[in-house]
Amino acid sequence: MSxxxxxxxxxxxxxxxxxxxxxxxxxxxxxxLCEHGADGTMGxxxxxxxxxxxxxxxxxxxxxxDCNSDLPVWIGGPVDTSRAWILSAADPGTSERIRxxxxxxxxxxxxxxxxxxxxxxxxxxxxxFLLGYAGWAPGQLEGELAASAWLNAxxxxxxxxxxxxxxxxxxxxxxxxxxxxxxxxxxxxx
Length: 190
Known about the structure:
By secondary structure, the chain is of the alpha+beta class. Helices cover 19% and strands 32% of the residues. The protein has one domain: 3-Layer(aba) Sandwich (VC0467-like), CATH 3.40.1740. It has helices spanning 54-57, 110-117, 140-146, 157-162, 165-175, and strands at residues 13-17, 30-37, 40-45, 49-53, 72-75, 79-88, 98-101, 104-107, 127-136, 150-153. The mean pLDDT is 87.
């Protein structure tokens, strides 16, 4: 590959933790890879909801009567847990958004937050409010993939937004044609 050729990227796609992943931050996790390149990798754990509502952690001046009080906070990863992200299955129309693909957007602006909080109940499943992220140094994720710590899977919006969090990991494995119960602990392919 010449220097002019772009570096191959895994983003956007999903990472599925293998059974030998015992780190409590990533055990049975599904991670949406948002950026992957020579400078490292950034992703969001997308199957860790909390029982905390978004409006309960916001400053009172941000919350008004038409805010969605049931929207939960999700744990996006162990890095910079004070940083908030809005993952959306629709273009939020804000200038700071990042287009992950034609139907998936990531933003961290107040405008995106307002859009998320004011979404009608019928549309609230199209948004995720996440705190923190998962990060890998350059080459680190490639090493973990080579050690069989993760499975890489195609991006699947139905899985992200319509599958219950507690079923997401096993459902993602099944969509690869694998029975999750047949995955073995240990390195390498079995």
